[in-house]
Give the backbone structure.
Amino acid sequence: MAWRALLISLAGAALWLLFLAQLDLEFEWLPLSAWQGDRWYKIASGSLLAGFVCFQWLLALLRVNRWARAARALYPWHRAVGAFSPVLLLLHSTRLGFGYLLMLSTVYVANNVVGLLSPSAFPRLKMLVPFWLIAHIALSVLLAALVVYHAWTALSYE
């Protein structure tokens, strides 16, 4: 089972490297850029990202409510879906933004990278579980707050 977690982490890391490479190379796919300029596309892709964040929070809600069986069943999905978060970000925006958008993007990337470094993918690092868990939860809470703030400001000023 550890090999599957490692494979998911490697796939997620490869997707982040591709995302960062397109940033560095200033690659622009014209059809995607045109879509991203459309108000309804922004709302749809932003809703998809917000739905993704909510889905990822479902695992925490299951654990807090002590639904262990459901949490165990959801955990592989949490990891696999999380590995594709660079694709969701790319569909919404090919850039990291400025100001609070840069902070939102940075927290999004950092939280995902911390998730990819999960102790389930790297069993020899089990001693780091408490630190990893604190970092992942703290970044998740900050991400949720920033997503709500971004949705509020984006929809208020459109």
In short: The chain has a mean pLDDT of 92. The chain has seven helices and no strands.
